[in-house]
Amino acid sequence: MSYSAFAFIDTRMNLAVTGALVNTIVVVGAPLVVVLIFKEELSSMQYLGIALAVISMTLLNLA
Question: CA–CA separation, 21 vs 42, rounded Å?
């Protein structure tokens, strides 16, 4: 299923942007799962890293 989603996104966007999007989803999704399911707390540096990942993805989409 994930390959089908990746292929669908790839038909709509540039391959470089698609790859960055998938990597950003992993970077944002993993801590989200950890916080919601395992009730772990993130440090301020981890929040900063997630924010930078989202900003970089936004900039790639605007370019």
Answer: 22
Q: pTM, whole model, 2 decimals? A: 0.67
Is the CB of residue 20 less than 8 Å from the CB of residue 56?
A: yes
The model's confidence at residue 39, banded by pLDDT at 50, 70 and 90, is very high
Q: CB neighbours (10 Å) of residue 3? A: 7
Q: Which position has the token pair 């540096």?
A: 45
- Give the pair of three-digit tokens for residue 16: 């470089």
CA-based end-to-end distance of the chain: 28
Q: Are residues 18 and 9 in contact, defined by beta-carbon separation less than 8 angstroms?
A: yes
Q: Which residue has the tokens 């772990």?
A: 40
**C-beta of residue 46 within 8 angstroms of C-beta of residue 6:** no
